[in-house]
Amino acid sequence: MKIIILKNALVQAIQNVHKAVSSKSTIPVLSGIKMAADESGLRFTATDLEIGIETLVPTLIDDEEIVQVKEAGAIVLSARFFGEIVRKLPGKTVEIEVKQNYLTIIRSGKTEYNLHGLDHEEFPRLPQVAGNQVFSVQSDILKDMIRQTSLAVSSEEIRPVLTGVLFTLKNGNLKFVATDSHRLATRESIVEAPPEMEFTNVIVPGKSLNELGRLLADNDVLVDVVVAENQVLVKMGHTQFYTRLIDGQYPDISRIIPTTFKTGLTVNTKELQGAVERASLVAKESDNNVVRFNIKHDRLEITSASPDAGKMSEPIDEIQVNGDELLIAFNSKFFMDALRVIDSPDLLIEFTGSMSPFLIKLPDNPTYLHLILPVRIY
Amino acid sequence: MKIIILKNALVQAIQNVHKAVSSKSTIPVLSGIKMAADESGLRFTATDLEIGIETLVPTLIDDEEIVQVKEAGAIVLSARFFGEIVRKLPGKTVEIEVKQNYLTIIRSGKTEYNLHGLDHEEFPRLPQVAGNQVFSVQSDILKDMIRQTSLAVSSEEIRPVLTGVLFTLKNGNLKFVATDSHRLATRESIVEAPPEMEFTNVIVPGKSLNELGRLLADNDVLVDVVVAENQVLVKMGHTQFYTRLIDGQYPDISRIIPTTFKTGLTVNTKELQGAVERASLVAKESDNNVVRFNIKHDRLEITSASPDAGKMSEPIDEIQVNGDELLIAFNSKFFMDALRVIDSPDLLIEFTGSMSPFLIKLPDNPTYLHLILPVRIY
Prior knowledge:
alpha+beta, 28 strands, DNA Polymerase III, Chain A, domain 2, 3 domains, DNA_polIII_beta_C (chains A, B), 45% strand, DNA_clamp_sf (chains A, B), transferase (chains A, B), elongated, DNA_polIII_beta_N (chains A, B), 6 helices, 378 residues, homodimer
């Protein structure tokens, strides 16, 4: 293999795939990035066997030469070491030449590195995903759906299905659900899908989705999502992202979400966020992280207390309350997580009693829903 | 105590003193910040018994009211917790009121905190430093002297004196020396001192100096340095910084610094820095971190090699070399540390053989000197 590539394109390609590099595998080749050069350009691949990322740097972009392939071939280089070196190279272009015994020469400006590479034949092939179940969604919408749900996945491996986000699709409506059994987040969106396409129990690991979220651009370009038996493939321009799915049956959540409420309030997001954040500073000094809402007919009082640290109170006046007065307590971390992924200026919160789950909704966007279980007040 | 203070001034004052708060003391009061209000304003103090910082927020600055003292008094509040709370307060001003049993009420906007304070009488008094040995130096120069020498102090407690920076003063010339016995940094500056003032073995802990460096402003305002038997006091405007000194006799370094050289070269700082940094990426993959200079009559070649990772080479051509050709090896970390604190565009490096210490000098500034011991090339 012998190629010359623009340094910026090389840095970007390594950055795209490096999140899939295994950090603790006992298989040496998995700590590397595979580069393969052919007439189409230079293809970078990394995988930890849970996720895989492949990105092609094409020979030309808008008539500008990005990669010049002088000799086809492939090599695997240590991701960490190669990444560090490339970022520090002095020149605008980088020449990579593979000699005998995987010896790889990297030249840029007057700098020359001789690196020990690994056999690309030992690098696992990414799975071939059969392409019959494909839908298309805007990159920024998919990114938002991930951001607004993946925070609610469980971090405990006891119930593996809860460490993933449930994908369902019916009548062109894609829905994400995540819950750790203390809170639940859902987000829906209409996508471009064949009318008969439908799936109900596709569980994507939350960690994989966070990596996918990083790759997705904040623009309205469509990305293709291929759903197969054991894996999902996302195609974004020259980059492909694979993840395995989680086995098992996701619990039925339809009965958990209340459909009526006894107390409803509309409140300014930023104001509430600030108050709960200030209350949480006291709450997190004690074990349970509890913040209370004391809801009167035109007023919400936010309080917290810790035996060691002290207590805090802050009213939000002149808010709109419908229904009964209520005193309710909850884990402030869950509440703050939910508010962090909300972009709407106002919130709708619906309660059905001090021991029932409450809902955070967006007045301007019915596709989002966040449910939080309260904690008992002693 | 009852005061009203501008939030920004409160945040700044906490930030000034918090570096002196003890992070692991068994004495609870040392994890706090003492606030004391009187007619001059609100005074903040923190100490870990090694260093102490005191800062006064005066009642008025340029006719603007900064602190309004309604009732004099004092309290100690948990530095971490209080600092977190203050940063998040919603209002432009903050009211702090101390009630019975050290209960402290903090009000800002509509937020109210009730915090458990501690008895200020238990807080240690900062030492009274006798003021007969005082010199004055520009804030930015003192900051630079610290930056250029403290990196060379030893991190090993086996020889405590080497964990400090040696201060000496003679004929108005202040000199800092630091060495960990692998490298040595010195920096001098003319300061304003009484003609008879002189000291020779004042050893200031490197850690203390790093905290002092953070407090020093990048301007030419004079700061006063008071040197006493066991401590040094630095007065910067409304802020005072104390540190204890290290006991013991600093080694005589005068014979270590070569006064002649066999090979001298002048080289562009940035170019050399880049090359050594690139070489160090390979060097740090092996234990010894070694980078080599191969000096020819008009050319410097920088190389490094690691059995696992590979090797690197980069020439710097057309440089000015005086004297013999030379092959020398050294710990690249030391070299990079030295270059990081140099602002000159060019460097002068003087060698006296492959097993003798070499000097890094600045062509435009004879007050700075950095010495590095080479390593043996097998």
